[in-house]
Design brief:
By secondary structure, this protein is α+β, with helices and mostly antiparallel strands. About 15% of the residues lie in helices and about 35% in strands.
Length: about 325
């Protein structure tokens, strides 16, 4: 299936700022199951956009706008082709636990087994694990499927119920959250079980024939676990489904902190207020999205942190509540 994606992020500042420096992770990955045929990134005001590939194979674009501006827009347009993964078996056998242990012991996926910024063990996480009786079952695949279904049954999906920097305890306490929270909780438990698991950011095509809990108009997040004989298998705990051709992979990392869609700093007047609006549209390739009028959703506004004496910087990443 081929999709077109148009992802626009707009920053508005209460008073003009003097410079913006930003990096962006919006280009879909190209691998065995997905191919990015076209990608363009433009900024307003205009800038020279550079790119590099990080250690996880994600494409990162970066730019600098060294001029006064009170508004900035970043527009990414993509044509990507996704294949349907092979159907998963019902189980992979009890021996898979020992094979999973061998993978973990080899150090091959050490970064996806250790706690990270948003996947720290907590008392509330342990309490949920015991309550849902999540433990090593007949094999790792069966256990992860059960974890996904238990999360879907016990947690409510609620848009804007948490912030981009919310710890998992916020969602565990309220029993509701967004896709980012679902992914972090799933990852934390899977790693405690000894299963290497990583965070995936991207997009989800919403087909009317599917009853997704997550809504349109934003980026999406899910997880991938490394299983013997199967490789990296995608799970979408928000929607309680195994990842398929509707999922468009953009970046992988230990958690959200590794792969925010935008991250940067700006220079400006002390205590300048800023607002962020995000628009995401995903459709079949036959749709010419570039000519459509896409509504913008205001996600968050806040006061900037106190500036440094000379750089007067404010961390844009802390505003980035794009994901549902």
């Amino acid at each position: 299936m081929r999709y077109t994606v148009r992802h626009v992020t707009r920053f508005t500042y209460e008073s003009p700022i003097s410079e913006s420096v930003m990096e962006v992770r919006m280009q879909p990955r190209s691998d065995a199951m997905q191919r990015c045929h076209h990608f363009s990134l433009t900024t307003t005001p205009a800038s020279r956009v550079m790119m590099y590939q990080d250690s996880d194979g994600n494409i990162v674009h970066h730019f600098n706008i060294p001029a006064r501006h009170s508004r900035m827009a970043v527009t990414a347009e993509t044509l990507v082709e996704c294949d349907e993964p092979k159907p998963l078996p019902d189980e992979i056998g009890a021996d898979a636990w020992s094979e999973t242990y061998d993978i973990a012991s080899s150090g091959e996926a050490w970064g996806y087994l250790s706690p990270s910024t948003f996947t720290q063990p907590t008392q509330l996480l342990d309490a949920f694990t015991k309550e849902a009786r999540i433990e090593r079952g007949s094999d790792p695949l069966v256990t992860l499927r059960r974890l996904m279904s238990e999360m879907a049954a016990r947690f409510e999906y609620r848009k804007s119920s948490t912030r981009v920097d919310s710890p998992i305890d916020d969602a565990l306490q309220a029993r509701k959250g967004v896709c980012q929270d679902f992914a972090h909780i799933f990852i934390s438990i899977a790693r405690q079980l000894g299963i290497p698991t990583r965070y995936v950011s991207g997009y989800l095509f919403h087909d009317p024939s599917h009853t997704d809990r997550s809504g349109e108009g934003a980026t999406h997040a899910w997880v991938e676990s490394l299983l013997p004989g199967l490789g990296w298998v995608g799970f979408d705990p928000t929607n309680n489904i195994v990842v398929g051709e509707r999922h468009i992979r953009v970046a992988i990392g230990r958690d959200y902190a590794d792969v925010p869609p935008t991250r940067g700093v700006y220079k400006g007047v002390s205590n300048v207020k800023s607002e962020l609006a995000v628009s995401v549209r995903v459709g079949p390739a036959r749709s010419l999205l570039a000519g459509e009028i896409v509504p913008f959703t205001p996600w968050m506004s806040r006061d900037a942190t106190p500036p440094l004496r000379e750089t007067e910087g404010s961390d844009i990443q802390q505003q980035q509540q794009q994901q549902q």
